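Thread: quick sanity check before group meeting

JM: Hey all, I'm pulling together slides for Thursday and realized we never actually wrote out the predicted structure for the chain we discussed last week. Dropping the sequence here so it's in one place. If anyone has concerns about the input, flag it before I start.
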Amino acid sequence: MKLDRLLAITMLLLSQSRVNASELSRRFEVSLRTIYRDMEAINQAGVPIVSFPGTDGGYELMPGYRIEKQMLTLEEFGSIIAALRGMRSAAGVEEIDRLLERISALAGRRPDSLPESPLDLDHSPLPRDRPRMAALHGAIREQRLVSFSYLNSQGQETERTAEPMGLFMKNAVWYLYGYCLLRSGLRVFRLSRMLRLERLERGFARRPYTLQDIERQFMDRTDFRRIEAELIFRPEVRTRVRDEFGYEPVEDLEGGFSRVAAGFSSLEKALQTVLSYGSRVEAKSPPELVERVRTELLDAARLYAGTK
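JM (edit): ok, ran it. Output follows.
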C-alpha cells in the first residue's frame, strides 16, 4: 500500500547515499510515474529530497538532513501506533502490521510497551461492508477490474465496471474511488450501495490521477456539498439534541426550546435528520431544506390519509 511504500522509500533515503527511480520501480513493482509521485509526496511532507539527472542520477536527501528518534517523544510514537491500529481495524491487511513494526523499530520499543494514546481510533467498516472492503483492497493491490451493480440516491440501479484506485472514509462512511468504464471518468462509490461485487481477472494500468483530482471529484458531487441549516427543537428532545449536535452551536431558548446552527454533508443527510425528529423539530433554513421537508411530510400524510 502507498503509506508502507512511502515509509520504505524514506528509510532507504536515510540509509543510502542515492537511490535510483528505476531501481525503486522494480523493487516495489510500480511504474516510474508512481515513484515520481511518491518522491513529490515525500518532499511535500517536509523531507528535503534533491534529484540528480543523467545515467548516474537519482534521489538523495539534502546534505545534513537526518531523522532522529528524539524528534518524536514516546507519547507521540504511541499516537502514531494508535492511528495505524485504527487503519488496521478498517483494512485488516498485513501491510499495516509491517508498518507498525517499522515505526516501533524507529522508536526502539515494542508497540505494546509504548505509552498508551488517549485516542482510540476505530475505523472498522460495518459488518456488511467488510467482505466488500477485503475484495476491493485485493483488487486495488493487484490492479484488477471490478464489476458491480450500483444503487444511486434515487434508487436506480446500473451495472458498472471500474478500475479501483483507493478506499477512503468520510463522515463515518466508506467509499471507493476509481475510473468508471460506463461513465468514462473518475467516480466515487459508496460501499453500502455496491451490490453483487465481483473481482475480475482482467487487469488495468492505473491512470495518472492525483489525490487532488480525487478530492475535487468528491467535493463537486452535489450530494456531498455541505449545507448550513437552522433548526428549532422542542424541549422533550433536548438531551438527544445535545448528544447529536454537541459540537455545533446550540442556543437555549425560552420554554426549553433549542436553536441549532448545524452543518450537514448533504441536503439528503439534513432531510433524514430532520424527519427523524418528527414534529419535535422545525427547519427554518435553508429554503431548499424547508421545501423538501414539507414535500416529504405531505407525501406521508397522503400515504396514511385512508388509515385509522
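AS: nice. The first helix runs from residue 2 to 15. The chain has four domains: 2-61, 69-113, 127-221, 227-303.
JM: adding both to the slides.
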